[in-house]
Amino acid sequence: MSVADGSGPGAVTIGYVECKDIGTHLDEVEQSEQLTRYRDNLDNLVLTDYLEFRWYVEGEERGRARLAHVDAQGKLVAETGGATRVEDLLTAFLSAAPEPIRSPAELARRMARLTRMIRDIIVQAFDREQHTDTLHGLFEAFRQTLLPQIEPGEFADMYAQTLAYGLFAARVNHRGPRPFERIGAAAEIPKTNPFLRKLFHTITGPDLDDEPYAGFVDDLTRLLAHADIGAILADFGAQTRRDDPIVHFYETFLAAYDPKLREMRGVYYTPEPVVSYIVRSVDWILREHFDLPDGLADRATVTYEVEQPDGTREQRTSPRVLILDPACGTGTFLYHVIDHIRRQFVQSNNAGMWPGFVREQLLPRLFGFEL
Question: Is 172 helix (H, G, I), strand (E, B) or coil?
Fold first, then answer.
């Protein structure tokens, strides 16, 4: 269970307590897969069988104290001074309030730990066939609409990341005097991402309260609610030179959540000044070396032949300048191409022609693919 400094939207999660039955051998529990996962992902944790209390900070044992032990007759015998030592331990545990989050790296680290907890709980639910109907329904929906071959572990990973990143996107867009909360957060996801907005509304609604990982989602919400988003976004922009934190923070988050997955998927964003330089350079090369006076905006065409199945040859016409990004990611290169061409229209006082050019000349020449 999690321990907060109060109740309601203003509460901050201080730490977690894992309770076992009286007399449980905590040495064995300490070596279990469950507690290893907890120590890896929970900053402030107490393990207890109600007689002994062990306190961990950042995965390392900080102290232990015992109230009593069970004698040979099965009776509880109080430890001399035990109550005072347990009181001191729990006071220290409750005093370990998390530091305010003011950097992207720290936010990513803290988000990643809770996201891994959510993922692992979902994996365990499927392994033990203890998943709820709602969770199983979402799994089947993912299979039918996105990835037919997806396995429960992959689904749990995608689902947990969607929860975490949806909350982050909603937090960045949160405005107004009311505290940031899970219920209603979907409405704060940008309308430009309707898929995430609709999915997030489904997975963070009232039904989430019945899920075994709901507490960690609420902890994630509290974490984001009390993060200094203004300082984080200012630092993020200064360090990365990227305009859209909702898009580009994912690289920082994934590096903390699963570095191997980040490497496998190639989630490395090119800094926007570099993208701008490359786009402007290509435009200049087209003008200077390919006899295309309008560069990336040039409307020149070429005619070529295509052999048909019956052996005849058909003539076709294509724009001479085609723009392909084979690993477009968030579309940064394509966005800068569009922006660069639009600036040319504005500078030449042809802005009124822009909508027609986009529809008829530009969009048919843009191609982007992403794994």
Answer: helix
